[in-house]
Design goal:
It contains 19 helices and 5 strands. It is an alpha/beta fold. The chain binds flavin-adenine dinucleotide.
């Protein structure tokens, strides 16, 4: 009798460099690739009442699953798609098909671990084994010089200890053929956005990029960024821009859903350095991918602490309040500080914000408004296209000064940031329509506009600043 392996696709929606899939192909003769839309992820709310997955990411996941199915069909297989609870559906499927193994990439954060643990317990009841594989990080944990528990808490130390020593393994090649599904097995429909309970998406014409989910587009983006447009060679100079899809790689949404492997990015980057150019920019792209690994390792090392108010340091944060009123003003982009409002409105409209924007709005919420940073982190969790538990909560820990590697004294001067990164005010003008006619030298200081200027520029009901912008003027 054929041995059957179920591959449970999670945040690894790709065929290339997929350890779960390649393990299944090595071990089993019958392969059942499965994706489950976990209803809790799409329907539940966070502690502060935001929908866990906002519509942009939901759409991105749907597209990624459709693409995965398409790619599996091209090599003879299919993707079984269900909606419900993975632990129930997978254990039932495994029992029905007398599977020997369910194989999946291991997740390390609380909610994901609860699901995989529940599945494992159910499978034990049927004598079926759950096999965990890896594939999230650039580095393989086994190759790290120190055990995870001894990972340095400071990024620069982590980087120093790894970057020239730890190898990045070759990505696993995508399979060229997979046996077909059993004839009696109904693959199932990929649910629409509506079926998952979302309103249709109206794409915003101000968006500088429409992200489409899936491995196919992810690989195109990699090719475009490195080979077609040579953008990696100038990354360090452009990465802090607020707007413009070519300024940073924009790999993050595909990395978060696993449509793109970091090891493949690394491999292509090394090839690019050999064949085109190797400079500070190409190094910096690798450097940023190291941050991603670092936060993942911090998540592993410190566990649920990354989600707690006191963060990894268990530091008292009593001064930060769950102030819903201030929070809503921030979230809606109505603080009267144009740089903050523009970034928040962009996030609300398209599910995306630049790294520079994220650092500033996070700092503003915590340092200026003294609002509990967890509310901001949950809001990002809901809305970000590229939401990744370790990167999101790790970065919020960091900005709030409760992370493993805090910069406690780091308070952004929002006005200086605005003038540096949006000198002409174009970014603000794009998202704050009330300020569309304000000239560059005044756009970041609406508090200084006279009544007649407000009238002349049509500033209308753009809100009065909730903090004194004056204090940042230097
Ligand atoms: C408050 C806050 C929350 C964030 N939440 C997330 C999140 O949920 N998911 C997420 O992927 N990133 C998050 N980031 C990190 C960073 O903002 C995004 O990774 C980056 O903006 C994505 O754009 P890009 O792909 O063009 O990045 P690039 O600048 O092109 O960088 C290349 C890749 O490196 C990684 N990277 C870059 N910066 C960071 C960083 N600071 N931390 C971790 N990885 C990094 C990403 O995978 C990124 O795709 C957050 C940052 C802050 C300050």
């Amino acid at each position: 009798m054929n041995r059957c392996a179920i591959v449970w696709f999670r945040q690894d929606l790709r065929l290339h460099d997929n350890e779960a899939l390649s393990t299944a192909l090595r071990m089993g003769e019958d392969i059942l690739p499965v994706y489950i839309f976990d209803e809790r992820i799409f329907q539940d709310e966070t502690r502060f009442g935001f929908r866990k997955t906002g519509k942009f990411r939901a759409q991105f996941i749907i597209e990624s699953v459709l693409d995965l199915r398409e790619n599996l069909r091209k090599i003879g297989s299919d993707l079984i798609v269900r909606l419900g609870q993975p632990e129930e559906i997978l254990s039932e499927l495994a029992r029905e098909h007398k599977a020997s193994w369910v194989i999946c990439n291991r997740e390390r954060t609380q909610e994901e671990v609860m699901v995989q643990d529940a599945l494992e317990t159910r499978l034990w009841g049927f004598g079926i084994e759950l096999i965990y594989t890896r594939g999230k990080m650039l580095y393989h944990t086994q190759d790290l010089p120190l055990p995870v528990q001894h990972t340095p808490d400071f990024f620069f130390q982590f980087r120093k200890e790894n970057e020239n020593i730890t190898p990045v393994r070759e990505p696993i090649l995508a399979p060229s053929a997979i046996p077909p599904l059993p004839a009696n097995l109904e693959p199932g429909e990929v649910p629409s956005l509506e079926r998952l309970g979302y309103e249709p998406i109206l794409y915003n014409e101000q968006a500088d990029m429409i992200f489409k989910g899936g491995e196919t587009v992810a690989l195109q983006r990699l090719k475009y960024y490195l080979w077609e447009k040579n953008l990696a060679s100038t990354y360090k100079e452009t990465r802090n821009e607020l707007f413009g899809s070519d300024n940073s790689s924009r790999f993050s949404p595909w990395l978060a859903q696993g449509c793109l492997s970091p090891k493949l990015i690394y491999q292509e980057l090394k090839k690019y350095e050999k064949e085109r150019v190797s400079n500070e920019s190409t190094y910096w792209l690798f450097f940023e991918l190291l941050w991603r690994d670092f936060f993942r390792l911090m998540g592993k090392k410190h566990g649920n602490k990354i989600f707690l108010k006191g963060g990894v340091q268990s530091k008292s944060q009593k001064h930060l309040k769950n102030n819903r009123e201030l929070f809503s003003i921030w979230a809606e982009g109505k603080t009267g500080v144009p740089f903050i409002d523009a970034n928040m409105r962009q996030l609300n409209a398209v599910g995306w914000m630049s790294n520079r924007g994220r650092m500033n709005v996070a700092s503003f919420l915590v340092r200026e408004l003294k609002v509990n940073w967890q509310m901001g982190a949950e809001y990002f969790e809901s809305l970000l296209l590229d939401y990744d538990p370790c990167s999101n909560w790790g970065n919020w820990n960091y900005v709030a000064g409760v992370g493993s590697d805090p910069r406690e004294d780091r308070v952004f001067n929002i006005l200086t940031q605005a003038k540096t990164y949006d000198p002409q005010g174009d970014f603000v003008r794009t998202w704050c329509h009330e300020l569309a006619n304000v000239p560059p030298d005044k756009i970041h200081r609406p508090d200084l506009l006279t009544a007649s200027e407000r009238n002349e520029y049509g500033v209308g009901d753009y809100p009065k600043a909730i903090v004194k912008i004056e204090k940042w003027a230097v």
